[in-house]
């Protein structure tokens, strides 16, 4: 086993490296989390004419769906800090002749020249703020009084086999510094009491949460074990950690990841591993 430096788990740079990684595997990322996004959209149940802000919109798939739901008299605005993802989202909207619009900005500090929104939506885009209370306070200023927010956030890693199985393999090859609880990142809001405290301090109330539990296809629907391995190594922080240890460690980890994913592969579905997320709503 090779010792990894603590800085190997530095926060995601969504305007840079992580944005490029997401863009390079956009279809696989979106295919992997699409069922959770669909569940959050169904829970939000948008009405015609509503104005909706999509926080951390990525490649714009959810914003396009929201635009269709709210119709021509509504508005769907996707916001993301990653310029390469916003460029892709704009291209998708143009190709689909969608009225969805997109802005590249840091939601924690930006001021939008927009009328206030009726709703806010975020599929895994709200957990990365360095200072979450000021960020959510800023977001609240973009909303009408009483506006509803709908967020999907990951539950604890132990409830997400897709993460636990991958990290089990990674840790057999390299020492990984332990995660810092509540640090910005995918699992920052695993503790709902922490999220509720943030929202309350930022001026939101009436938080409710339901669990989404199921399986998700690692690397997207119908991915082979080899494709799931390539996706994990190219797109996730674990791949960067392993690559820093040299080709021998990376090759051994690649073989072990492929063997692990093979155990969970089902024909016609892909590499199916358990997942749990919280679908959270609150009122401004």
Give a short synopsis of this structure.
The protein has 284 residues and is an alpha/beta fold. 40% of the residues lie in helices and 24% in strands.
Describe the structure.
The protein has 284 residues and is an alpha/beta fold. The protein has a single domain, classed as Vaccinia Virus protein VP39 (Rossmann fold, 3-Layer(aba) Sandwich). 40% of the residues lie in helices and 24% in strands. The strands form two sheets. Strands 2, 3, 4, 5, 6, 8, 9 and 10 form an eight-stranded mixed sheet that branches. It has a two-stranded parallel ribbon with strand order 1-7. Helix 6 (161-171) packs antiparallel against helix 10, helix 8 packs across helix 9 (237-243) and helix 8 (225-235) crosses helix 10 (247-263). The termini are far apart. The model is unreliable at 1-11 (pLDDT under 50).
- Segments where pLDDT lies below 50 for 5+ residues? 1-11
- The best one-word shape is globular
Q: Can you say what the CATH homologous superfamily is?
A: Vaccinia Virus protein VP39
Q: Whole-number average pLDDT?
A: 92
Strand content: 15-25%
Rg, please?
Answer: 19 Å
* CATH class group: Alpha Beta
User: What's the CATH architecture name?
Assistant: 3-Layer(aba) Sandwich
What is the SS-derived class? Answer: alpha/beta
Task: State the major sheet.
Answer: 8 strands, mixed
| Share in helix | 40-55%
- Which series of helices and strands comes N to C? EHHEHEHEEHEHEHEHHHEE
N/C terminus separation: 49 Å
Query: Tally the helices: what do you get?
Result: 10
Number of strands: 10
Number of domains: 1
Give me the CATH fold name: Rossmann fold
């Amino acid at each position: 086993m090779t010792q990894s430096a603590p800085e190997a788990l530095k926060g995601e740079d969504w305007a840079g490296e992580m944005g490029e990684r997401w863009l390079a595997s956009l279809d696989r990322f979106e295919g992997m989390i699409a069922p959770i996004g669909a569940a959050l959209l169904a829970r939000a149940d948008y009405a015609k004419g509503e104005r909706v802000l999509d926080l951390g919109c990525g490649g714009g798939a959810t914003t396009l769906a929201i635009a269709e739901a709210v119709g021509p008299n509504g508005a769907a605005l996707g916001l993301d800090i990653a310029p390469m993802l916003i460029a892709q989202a704009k291209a998708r909207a143009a190709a689909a002749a969608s009225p969805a619009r997109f802005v590249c900005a840091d939601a924690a500090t930006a001021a939008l020249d927009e009328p206030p929104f009726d709703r806010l939506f975020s599929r895994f885009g709200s957990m990365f703020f360095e200072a979450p209370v000021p960020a959510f306070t800023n977001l609240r200023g973009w909303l009408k009084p009483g506006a509803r927010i709908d967020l999907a956030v990951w539950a604890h890693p132990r409830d997400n086999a897709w993460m636990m199985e991958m990290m089990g393999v990674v840790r057999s090859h390299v020492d990984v510094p332990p995660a810092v609880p509540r640090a910005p990142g995918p699992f920052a809001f695993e503790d709902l009491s922490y999220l509720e405290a943030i929202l309350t301090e930022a001026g939101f109330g009436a938080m409710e949460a339901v669990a989404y539990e199921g399986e998700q296809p690692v690397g997207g629907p119908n991915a082979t074990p080899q494709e799931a391995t390539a996706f994990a190594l190219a797109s996730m922080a674990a791949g960067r950690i392993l690559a820093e240890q040299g080709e021998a460690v990376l090759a051994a980890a690649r073989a072990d990841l492929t063997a692990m994913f093979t155990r969970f592969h089902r024909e016609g579905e892909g590499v199916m591993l358990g997942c749990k997320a919280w679908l959270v709503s609150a009122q401004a």
